[in-house]
Structure formats: C-alpha cells, structure tokens
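Q: I'm writing a short explainer about Membrane protein for a general audience and would like to include a description of its predicted shape. Could you first generate the structure from this sequence?
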Amino acid sequence: MPRTRAGRRRLTQAVMAVCVLALLPTTWLYVAAGDRLRTAADAPRTEVAVVFGAGLWDGEPSPYLAHRLDAAARLYHDGRVKVLLVTGDNSRADYDEPDAMRAYLTRHGVPAARIVTDYAGFDTWDSCVRAKKIFGVDRAVLVSQGFHIRRAVALCEAAGIDSYGVGVEEAHNATWYYGGVREVLAAGKAALDAVLRPDPRFLGPKEPGVARALAEAEAGTGSGTGAGAG
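A: Of course. Here's the predicted structure. Afterward I'll give you a sentence or two in plain language.
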C-alpha cells in the first residue's frame, strides 16, 4: 500500500476505474438486450428459433441443453415458430452436438424436416453470424439459459438478426453460478466481437436448409420424422 494519503487515494481511484471498465461490457449486454427477453409462453411468433449448444453427456444433451431443447420444442408445438436451427460444436468426429440436439427434438415430437443443423456453431458469435450469412436468418427467437440469453441477443443483433430471447430458468446451483461468473468474463469478448465483427472460425458456402424447411412448412409437406435439412 502507498504510504501517503495521496498515494492511497490514487490507488483507490485506479481500482475503481478498473472495476468500472471491467463492468462496461456487461452493462452493454443489458442495454443491448433491452426489452427483447420473453418466455416460451409469450415469445413473438416468427419463422425460426435458434437453439445454442450447451454440451453433451455420454453423447446425449446435458441437462442444461435438454432444457433449452424442451423450450424450443414448446415454441414449435405452440405454433410460435416453424423451424428450429440447432447450432453447436462438431469439431471432431466423436463429438456432435447438433445431431444429438436433432435426435432429442425428434424424440419430443418435432418433425425432423423442421430441424436444421449448424455443425460449426463453435461459440455464440459464430452461431449468430452463420445463422445470418450461411442460413439466411433475418429474424429469430433465441433459446438459451437466462444467464446467457442477453449475450446471445446482443451478438445476434450485432450480426444483423432481429432477435428476441427466451431465457430458460434453472435452479441456482453450482453450475448456474459458474455460468453467471463466466458470462461476466465473456462479456468482454462479446463486446470486441460486436465492434470488430470477425469472421467465424468456419464460414463456408450458403446453405438452403432453413429456406427449404420454411417452404415445406408453408406447403404443409415434410412434416414426418424423416431426415431433416442440414
């Protein structure tokens, strides 16, 4: 500690300035998400819902991911969305979030033809940019846990998607608190992504999956449990 009163005052001011700067990205997330948060019961009717990956346990969706998928299935069954875009990590052969998400949804009554898979959603920014640039999504309801949904909405808005968020409620256990702390740290990267707008780790060519699934939905076809659009 500085020995002089002036030195201690300067140190206090410096610590306060660092704290304020550290919290600015989190503040931006709250402002950017604004009034865009909804529940599954009152989400706006739109064509597409985007469901973000949240890990697998022995090849099956983790409890947190399963809760996201349950909310997305409810949106579909309630007629609030027509197509579900599931985005997650398939960076190695033995780890496939999107197909596990698709299988879970079909087991819960969502037709496979209404599920579109994004295998390169390695993080939230990548998922948002790819939803816009690769799959042509202009407006969507986003589905994630409450501690993550503001970041998802802010980043998808920055990527050019008119977004509303459905935050899934969870018990406030150790995993929930870890997620909340992680979000404070992730807010800084999110702010940089929104400003710098980097390309995703993998961009690739445009894919017609969402447009095809929506066309089939409008035509009333492809509502069985066969293979869906990828």
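A: For your explainer, you could say: The first strand starts at residue 37 and ends at 38.
Q: Perfect, that's easy to follow.
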